[in-house]
Amino acid sequence: MLRGAKIGLRARHEDDIPILRAELYDDVVNSARAEGAPWRPMTPGSKDPRLVVDDKEQGRVPFSVVELEGGTLVGTATLWDIDTHHRSAHIGLGLLPATRGKGYGSDVVAVLCHYGFVVRSLHRLQIETLADNFAMLRAAERNGFTREGQRRSSAWVMGEFLDEVILGLLVQEWKPDANG
Known about the structure:
This protein is of the alpha+beta class. It has four helices and eight strands, in the order E-E-H-H-E-E-E-H-E-H-E-E.
């Protein structure tokens, strides 16, 4: 397990999947805001590609996020679109509704940075998020990410176009204790 100040990132367990599906992906609004694709219902018991881990896939590393104290599942985190030639990747996370606002997001970003820069020897990490996702913007900026640009009206979410913000962090800019 990779440890932060409050959370740990561990392998996805089979019993995590129903909780993540019910609390993150069955929520139409949350899923539409996070996925970049239209929401659709998933048949119970089906292999949901957003949640099921393929250990052979090299370009995506999904984690379950747990509280260090007690081990309670609080969300999901992913290093995705890993490019070993350019040594870059994207990071993303989703916290269960009841666990938001507790500082877990900043801690998850910090641990994903450690994994990307130290464990995977990457040079650059990137985050794309909706311009009104203030929690993710704060978590990224607390960890040293720089706003690099904004794509205007680029995300179709629940009947309207929203802007997306692109943030980047280079290994030489990274400060392991940045989120305090």
